[in-house]
Amino acid sequence: MDAGTARAELGRAARTLEVPARGDGPAATAAREALFALDLAVGELADVGVRPTPLIEGPDGAVATTLDHAGELLRGLATAAADQEADRRAAYARAALHVIEARAALDG
Amino acid sequence: MAEPLTYGGLLAAAERDVFAAMLAPRPSPAPADWLARQVAGARLVLATAGRHLNFLVDRFPPSPARDLADAIGQAVDPLAAAFPPDTADRAWRQGRDLLAGAHDLLAAHIDSMGNVRGPDGRLLADPDNARVAAARVADLVMTITVWSRPLAGGVAPVRLVDPPEAHPRDVLAWLARLAGPALAARADAGGVRGSPLDEVGPLLGDRAADPLEQAVQRARLVLFRMARARPGPGSEHLAACAQLGALIAGRLGERAGDASPGGLGEEARAAALAWSELAARLRPLVSLASSGAAGRAALAGVAIELRLARAERADGRPEPANVPTAEVRAARLLPDLAETGAQVFTALTRSGGGVYAIDGAPVPAKETAMIAHLYERAGQASRAALAAAAGLTPARRRALAAAFPTPTATASLPPRPAITRPTLPAHPPTAPHRPGPRR
């Protein structure tokens, strides 16, 4: 998966979540958390996207792994949004935050 | 949870120590060496007060506070050698150290040229804030003069000719003459007590604060710096900021529960909706600028700490009663998200990097204007939610109003009263009093 494809998938996932995120209650909260995690993941992609580094096949491993997680995340988010499973969306949001933390730690 | 480290808190602690020094038991009759120790202490505090007053007001036109700073300089500078700092009693020295700490805390927010270095630096550029803060310092000076008068025993020298030879009683009478300029500087605030500066914390955050507070402080500074960086962050950063705004405001609304008109719940939900709309408009945009790992780490830090605070509450851990809820503390980031977001967006639309639709097409001017409008709406809704939030001090509300002026907010401070200002004459027209030998 290249950065452009990943970004497009994230965009699709976000559009699915934007409507529930405007509501009230636990489902809306979970959607807002998921969207935030997703926006952070887009930032990750944008940072790496400006460099000609393959996301999965990078020689440094760690960066590729982080972004691999982001790819997994967006697929999970999209699935969760379709199923309206608030808990699952929140779980992916948590995962995304861990990804961001790992990346920040990696960057020192 | 430790009390937050703030300028106002340090000043209050300094006042307590100075009052303690003044209330210390007095021998009767007071021997000259005891009086000399008091003079040394009062001189220390007054010298620091004068330096701090200068810092607060020297960027503005002449004022009673500046007159007081000048008068203090004239009064205490000649005394330094005759009454060295190490002879002062401990409470005086502690009071001086705390006052100096308060000064240093504020001074860190601007550089030597007066340029702001953090999100609270602009509060120092507001003459009303300076006037009110200076009045508080003037109040302390006034109290010292009131304390010194009875110790002076009715002596009223108009000029110190030879400080090393002057009796401490004469020096105390000399210091008591600062009462006039202090009174004028205190009155200059028109009775307003509590300035937005009181809430200002250390530029780089308070390491003793709770983790959520630290995360918010870190995020405020990072957002401030990113908004001024060139090249700055891109549209991805803006979308994440807006979504964090939606997340925080949504949490605030949930916690409030109450949906009555004008209540916190309603205001917070309106803010969450405004932020959600803004994020949805920003998300399809791309830009050539970097999104910035530092910004993401700071934003994620706030979200994580907010979630942990909620989890701890859900586990039954009681929240401290003396501070606002975690949601309200996190919501203090909302005005910064709105302001810095609008700044970055404006810079992006004006720069070569620009913002584009995901297919590379330019963003229509109508859409750009809509996003700018949504930033305004999100900022207004956030401020309304914060104003409705319980636990905000009046000074904090004024700080928010000052950060984003509105017609009602700027009208809160009364006009400067016309005051005839007494000054401390350096060379009075009357014959100078030459103190006799030390009594």
Topology:
The complex is a heterodimer of chains A (108) and B (439).
Chain A (H helix, E strand, L loop, with lengths): L2 H19 L4 H24 L12 H22 L2 H21 L2
Helix pairs in contact in A: 1-2, 1-3, 2-3, 2-4, 3-4
Chain B lengths: L6 H16 L9 H26 L6 H13 L13 H18 L19 H26 L15 H9 L2 H9 L23 H18 L6 H22 L7 H19 L2 E3 L5 H22 L11 H6 L2 H17 L4 E3 L7 H24 L5 H10 L3 H4 L29
Antiparallel strand pairs in B: 1-2
Give a short account of the largest sheet of chain B.
Answer: 2 strands, antiparallel
Overall mean confidence score, pLDDT of chain A: 61
State the order of secondary-structure elements of chain B, H for helix, E for strand.
Answer: HHHHHHHHHHEHHHEHHH
What is the alpha-carbon Rg of chain B in Å? 26 Å
Which chains share the greatest interface? Answer: A-B, 29 and 37 residues
- As an assembly, this protein is heterodimer
Q: Name the helix and strand elements of chain A from N-terminus to C-terminus, one letter apiece.
A: HHHH
- Give a count of the beta strands of chain A, DSSP E runs of length 2 or more: 0
Q: Main β-sheet of chain A, in a few words?
A: none
Helix content of chain B: 55-70%
* Count of individual helical segments of chain B: 16
Low-confidence stretches of chain A: 50-59, 61-67
Based on secondary structure, the structural category of chain A is mainly alpha
Q: How widely separated are the two ends of chain B?
A: 52 Å
Q: Quickly count the domains of chain B.
A: 2
The count of DSSP E runs of length 2 or more, i.e. the number of strands of chain B, is 2
Taken as a percent bin, the fraction of beta residues of chain B is under 5%
Question: What is the CA-CA span between the terminal residues of chain A?
Answer: 26 Å
Whole-number tally of structural domains of chain A: 1
